Amino acid sequence: MSVALFTLGGTISMAGNQRLTGGDLTAAMPGLSELGHPVEIQDIEKIPSANLTAAKILEVVDAASKAVAAGAAGAVVTQGTDTLEESAFLADLVWPHPQPLVFTGAMRNPTLAGPDGPANLLAALRVACSPAARDLGALVVFKDEIHAARWVRKTHSTSTATFVSPNTGPIGHVVEDRVGILTRPLRLDGVQGSAEPAELDNLKVALYTVTMDDDGLLLQGLADTHQGLVVAGYGVGHVPAALAPVLGDLAARIPVVLTSRTGAGSVVRNTYHSPGSETDLLQRGLIDGGFLDPYKARVLLRLLLATDDDLAAGFAQYA
């Protein structure tokens, strides 16, 4: 039984002015012969992940879906780390199979001393082949840690230990050639409808981070140009009092999701009651983003809008 590998470029494939293929990556990886599964490679793109689109990720997920339907034990996607957490979460929302779909990459390119790409790729392939990793949805494997796509964050601009799951920690580890799953998170329903990649790219959902003295001037006219908004508020979901009516007016026209800008934890629902508090904002029609960070909330909102799925039910899974 094979394992499918899809490459999208990124630091893991950067070698000066050249971009390595999947064949180059696997050839430079010690231990591949011990994997026990042939690797079937499809080189999709060779681009920085800052230029990836949701439509492109859906195309890759579709290709991975066809590979596992044809008998692959699992699939691995390599890409740049800048948008990897968003790509993995988008994939998790639409991945219907029990086989693992694993995302990985590198922080140190192959021309540097101690590149992390080969170790990350080998660990990802091991996870993709492992029966222990079935029924976990999309995963991120980095530095021998296994993270659930819905919890993982990129937290450092240069460290090879950049990917962490602040609220939960990793769900497993790769030790030697063994895949160990420490906890099995409940598989959520994700998004039930089907989104065309082109339709998703045409949907505009803004992400707005609240700052001190914010009066919402930049939000004027947003409902005329965008179909949704995610707000990254202070702490447990707060904004300046002057911003609350602006957000309430927007929520009457387009979906507005409330999240926290802190990087961990959730918004709350009924703890604070002053103007601009979470209670005030939810009463004005904002949607509770729960434990989702702002970036993942934007991914989910965009996909729900594209599929006409129920917004409240979609976000309630993460509250």
Automatic annotation (TrEMBL):
Any single GO BP term: asparagine metabolic process
Pfam families assigned to the protein according to its UniProt record, in alphabetical order: Asparaginase, Asparaginase_C
Keywords tagged on the record: Hydrolase
Residues forming the catalytic site: T11 (o-isoaspartyl threonine intermediate)
GO molecular function per UniProt: asparaginase activity
Domain L-asparaginase N-terminal positions: 3-185
Family: Belongs to the asparaginase 1 family.
Name assigned to this protein: L-asparaginase
UniProt organism field: Kribbella pratensis
